[in-house]
Amino acid sequence: MNEASKAMKRRMVEDELGIFNWSQIICGDGIDVGCGPDKIRDDKCIAFDQEQGDANKISEYFTHKFDYLHASQCLEHMHDPYAAMVEWLEIVKTGGHAIISIPDWTLYEGRVWPSRYNPDHKSTWSFTFDSSPSKHHINIYKFLTKLSHICYAKRVMLIDNNYNYSLSQNVDQTFEESNGVEAFIEMVLCKV
């Protein structure tokens, strides 16, 4: 629940400690795709969710480009994640950033398909696995290689803050926001 808010708390600490310069990534005019009520910023950031249109065809809705695009736990809901990512990058300025987080197939899904925790997931994502029972399994490295003509990765990480590896994978550890558990892959892509 409220995965973007949890991530932003961690990101601000990372920024303050000099671990990663989030204040230079998430700045200027932005768009938060699929955010629902959990938009990352109130100022200079617009929300784009199902009420505003189809995120698979987002470039049809905007004539201007954004400094950054944020999408937390959204790309796994797209029918063709690669095509959706190309669309999303279309509305990002050259030198701008896409900040994307997707559930890790091992940590969040527990390598079970279909997802026990979100039946609308259309794809699985992993650093290590090249396939899963999902029709659309995405290996992060192969995905980024496919996108290398339009962006490069500034940061790609497995985020497992507060994740308890000793618990059964039959538990959605991310459900209680107060636990601060993150179980996803985070990408910061720079548009070329």
Question: What this model shows, in words?
Answer:
With 192 residues, the protein is α/β, with parallel strands linked by helices. It is built from four helices and eight strands. The strands form two sheets. The chain has a six-stranded mixed β-sheet. A two-stranded parallel ribbon has the order 5-6. β3 (66-72), α3 (81-90) and β4 (92-103) form a beta-alpha-beta unit. It starts with a helix and ends with a strand.
Question: Main attributes?
Answer:
192 residues, alpha/beta, six-stranded mixed beta sheet, two-stranded parallel sheet, 8 strands, 19% helix, globular
Question: Outline, from the CA principal axes?
Answer: globular
| Distance separating the two termini | 33 Å
Unreliable stretches covering 5 or more consecutive residues: none
N-to-C SSE series? HHEEEHEEEHEE
What's the helical proportion of residues?
10-25%
